[in-house]
Write a structure and sequence with these properties.
DUF2508 family protein; single chain; 70% helix; DUF2508; mainly alpha; Methane Monooxygenase Hydroxylase, Chain G, domain 1
Length: 96
């Protein structure tokens, strides 16, 4: 009996459309680039060797270019977000 119930749930479960999947993948890629940017910035702040400082700078520039590209694509498909500092709960405390 549970097999029939599972089959029914799968049959009527909403499948994400291609646009929804693309949006989620794009947002995940933006989050990953942001994570990489934070990591590169942290390494830059703690590096002492001049060659490695240069490498961090080049990496941060490449990540910034990738980030700009992804943000442009997000705007093209209509993805928007609320700035973090603007998201507050009713008590005035920041959320997020």
């Amino acid at each position: 009996m549970s097999g029939l119930k599972e089959w029914k749930n799968q049959l009527f479960q909403k499948k994400p459309d291609a646009q929804e999947v693309y949006t989620q993948e794009l947002l995940a890629e933006i989050r990953e680039v942001c994570r990489q940017m934070q990591s590169a910035n942290s390494r830059f702040a703690n590096e002492n060797d001049n060659d490695l400082v240069d490498a961090c700078i080049y990496e941060m520039e490449a990540l910034n270019a990738r980030y700009r590209f992804l943000i442009k694509r997000a705007r093209e498909v209509g993805i928007t977000c609320t700035p973090v500092q603007a998201r507050e709960n009713k008590g005035g405390e920041q959320v997020g």
